[in-house]
Each structure stands twice: as structure tokens, then as C-alpha cells.
Amino acid sequence: MFRKNFHTHNEICGHATGTLEDYVKKAISLGFTDLGMTEHAPFPGDAFSNRMAFEELSGYLDECFRLKEVYKDDISIRVGLEAEYLWQYDGYYDWLLNSKGVEYLILGQHYYMDESGYITWLFNCLENGEQAVGYANSVVRAMKTGYFSYVAHPDLYYMSDIDGSEGCAKADEILIDAAVSRGYILELNANGIRRGIRSFSTGDRYPYTDRLFWDKLKGTDIRVIVGSDAHDPEWLYDDSVKGCLQLAKDNKLNLVEDYID
Hints:
Number of domains: 1
Number of strands: 12
Radius of gyration: 17 Å
CATH topology: TIM Barrel
Strand content: 15-25%
Order of helices and strands: EHEHEHEEEHEHEHEEHEHE
Distance between the termini: 18 Å
């Protein structure tokens, strides 16, 4: 059964459809017990695209808390955000969690910052495996902060055609070792399957959420959570979510329903 989803977007980000309430109503109709709202977090100054403006943040949170109260007898709603970890914004994450009432953050490194402060975009933009290692190290740095409940689409670097490189294999090792040593949850993200099979220099595969990475978790105790990453209410429990559940079953992964123990 898939009765909880903690990775959900809505129309405010500009690349999704449906209001927050549309997702709540759909989740209730599916028999969900829990639904997490995790719109892409804006940053002060609006430095990054594909997300709400910073000035819209309070309105988003107010609506989440309104729905949480209105539908409390039908479903448990958790108010969250999906955010990149950029180390110069440490005070911002503290503010979200301790002053704005955000209940949880999930780490979605669409961008990553290296030690020099240089920012790299992940989507189809990595040119070599060394950049994948830089991404993996940024995820580990985020894990150490305690701000994030789990890592969304940890294998996002596979969108670039670098999977045959030594650096890409090293990135896998870094992420898996860190998840083991820190007891961190990794997310099987349904959007990797929704994007469909693509052709890469090493063969055809999903751009992420592919066995190329997830087969390496066989035999580990790493906790794995399935995230719909819904950008449409109809995606809350679609064939791509079911594909993630099947992948977890085939690999005998340590699947958990909730990021809270």
C-alpha cells in the first residue's frame, strides 16, 4: 500500500498544475492517511528559477496551515518545503524551521555549491564525473546540518551522460556510505520513471530512479522512501509510483512509509 506521500508540488511553482487543495482532495479520495506539502523553497533575493517568489512564501505557508486545520479529520497534512542546501544560507533554514513553522525540509539538490562557492545546476548539465563527486559531497554536507528529513532524488546526477565515469561511481559510493553511516533516508523518486527511458552512451535507461544506482543498495539497511514528486494531482499514485514500489520490492530495499521513526 502507498498511503503516505511527502513530496508534493502545486501550481505556485510555475511548472505544476493544481492548487494545494486539489492535492488534498485527491489524496483523500485515494485513501491517503498523510500528505506532505513540499513546494520548492524560494531564497531571499529570488536567485533561482522554477519556484515561487520569496514574497509568496508566507501565503503558501498560510494556505498549508489552513488546509491542515480544515481537513484534520480526513487526512494528516504536514507543511514542508523542498530545498537545495547552499551553505551560506544556514540562517535561512533555521528561520524556516524555527520561526516560520515549517515542519520539515527535504533536500532536493537541483543546484549544488562547491567549497569555493561556485554553483552548478544538475539537470543534464554535468560534464564529467568529478562534478558528480562535488554534488555527492554537497549532499553529505547537507546531511550533517540536521536541517533535512531525507534526500530527494539522490541519483539526480544520472540525468547527465556520465554514468560510465570513475567519478560517477565514486559519487554513488559517497552517497551510499553516508546514508549507511548517518542512518539517512534516500528517496526513490517517481519523476525519474515519468521522464521515460532515454538513450545514453552506455545504453538505454531512466535518467534517474534507475537500477544503475539502486541495485547498489541491495543488502544494505539504508531506509528508502518512495516520493511521488507530484506536479499534478493525478500523479499522487500513478504507474510511476507503482514502478518505484516494484523496484524497491525487486531489490529487497528497506522501504519505509514515513520519514519519522
